């Protein structure tokens, strides 16, 4: 089974995506028909310039005093982690079991939250985000600084955005590989975002496996984090690959995940301030960021409902196929679990819900589990 699956990775690039690791860069927003024909229907990403130059946010949001005055009475969700990696895999400190760790989330006044982001250090990283349409709720006073939609995208997709989210972070925050069941129009206002992208057909290269869910807890008294496994135990299917292993672990990681490291290179794109990335539904993406002179990276993303059409059926079928090279006896779960993980790995924007009672009901809906 390996040969036709691996041939597919290259055929997709030859027929649709091209041999370069770069994506199309449009100098201006596409027309609705061009966007639908060349990118949405083709499930193909693109970078777009000169689409948000008219936003007041592109000038106002470079002023920290403007943020503080506009949101002076707002309470927002601050995500705290010891490493800057939330909704990501990490060894449990006492059991050494690899688990899926979610951030500590505190609801605090915006001025205090922004200070925590700006004063982050490698032992306590703050990130302002909440993937629940937070831009139009928690950050409502800022909403008039950006357009409520991208008309060319709304017309092409036949709907308005289901959610609009705001992200305010620093260079310490990083998002592990995941995918979303949304058409994502991602606008960077300040700083830069660095994406690694892989198409849905490369799913077997992600080594998606079930991991026990855990949550970080932060002590204000000691300034230290603890990591606690959830009870009752539940499992989250997640991508096992770290594309940037440390030098001392690189050889080990490459040997453990050869389909990723030996396969076609991911597409690489840096989204600069004032640019937009169109990220098609179900594309795997890993994200790092570079801040502006203040130490902040600010972005707004618009989630449009994806079309559950024949492409979705094809991708689900592909994901359901077990790949024998993934059958590592040392990995968690068996072949059935591996196959189920592939078919259930959906929108990782908060957390999925699974039980550990039996293989038949181990994997449910993996909607909701990470950043962008």
Automatic annotation (TrEMBL):
<dbReference type="GO" id="GO:0005737">
    <property type="term" value="C:cytoplasm"/>
</dbReference>
<dbReference type="GO" id="GO:0004175">
    <property type="term" value="F:endopeptidase activity"/>
</dbReference>
<feature type="domain" description="JmjC">
    <location>
        <begin position="126"/>
        <end position="319"/>
    </location>
</feature>
<feature type="compositionally biased region" description="Polar residues">
    <location>
        <begin position="343"/>
        <end position="358"/>
    </location>
</feature>
<dbReference type="GO" id="GO:0016706">
    <property type="term" value="F:2-oxoglutarate-dependent dioxygenase activity"/>
</dbReference>
<dbReference type="Pfam" id="PF13621">
    <property type="entry name" value="Cupin_8"/>
</dbReference>
<feature type="region of interest" description="Disordered">
    <location>
        <begin position="343"/>
        <end position="372"/>
    </location>
</feature>
<dbReference type="InterPro" id="IPR041667">
    <property type="entry name" value="Cupin_8"/>
</dbReference>
<feature type="compositionally biased region" description="Basic and acidic residues">
    <location>
        <begin position="361"/>
        <end position="372"/>
    </location>
</feature>
<protein>
    <submittedName>
        <fullName>JmjC domain-containing protein 7</fullName>
    </submittedName>
</protein>
<comment type="similarity">
    <text>Belongs to the JARID1 histone demethylase family.</text>
</comment>
<dbReference type="InterPro" id="IPR003347">
    <property type="entry name" value="JmjC_dom"/>
</dbReference>
<dbReference type="InterPro" id="IPR014710">
    <property type="entry name" value="RmlC-like_jellyroll"/>
</dbReference>
């Amino acid at each position: 089974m390996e040969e036709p699956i691996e041939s597919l990775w290259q055929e997709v690039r030859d027929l649709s995506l091209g041999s370069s690791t770069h994506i199309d860069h449009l100098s201006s927003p596409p027309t609705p028909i061009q966007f639908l024909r060349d990118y949405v229907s083709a499930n193909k990403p693109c970078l777009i310039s000169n689409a948000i130059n008219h936003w007041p946010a592109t000038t106002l949001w470079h002023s920290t005093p403007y943020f503080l005055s506009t949101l002076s009475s707002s309470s927002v969700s601050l995500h705290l982690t010891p490493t800057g990696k939330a909704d990501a895999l990490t060894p449990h400190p006492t059991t050494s079991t690899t688990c899926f760790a979610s951030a500590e989330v505190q609801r605090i006044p915006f001025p205090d939250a922004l200070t925590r982001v700006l004063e982050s250090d490698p032992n306590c990283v703050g990130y302002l985000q909440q993937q629940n349409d937070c831009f139009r709720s928690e950050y409502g006073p800022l909403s008039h600084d950006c357009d409520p939609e991208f008309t060319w995208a709304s017309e092409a997709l036949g709907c308005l955005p289901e959610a609009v989210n705001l992200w305010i972070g620093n260079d310490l925050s990083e998002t592990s590989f995941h995918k979303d069941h949304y058409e994502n129009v991602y606008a960077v206002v300040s700083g830069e975002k660095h994406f690694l992208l892989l198409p849905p057909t490369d799913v077997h290269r992600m080594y998606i496996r079930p991991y026990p869910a855990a949550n970080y807890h932060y002590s204000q008294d000691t300034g230290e984090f603890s990591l606690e496994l959830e009870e009752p135990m539940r499992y989250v299917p997640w991508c096992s690959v770290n594309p940037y292993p440390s030098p001392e672990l690189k050889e080990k990681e490459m040997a453990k995940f050869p389909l990723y490291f030996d396969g076609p290179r991911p597409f690489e794109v840096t989204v600069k301030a004032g640019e937009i990335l169109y990220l098609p539904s179900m594309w795997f993406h890993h994200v790092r960021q570079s801040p502006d002179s203040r130490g902040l990276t600010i972005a707004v993303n618009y989630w449009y409902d994806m079309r559950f059409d024949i492409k979705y059926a094809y991708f689900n079928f592909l994901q359901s196929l077990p790949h024998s090279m993934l059958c590592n006896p040392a990995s968690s779960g068996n072949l059935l679990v591996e196959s189920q993980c592939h078919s259930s790995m959906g929108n990782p924007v908060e957390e999925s819900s699974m039980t550990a009672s039996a293989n038949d009901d181990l994997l449910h809906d993996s909607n909701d589990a990470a950043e962008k």
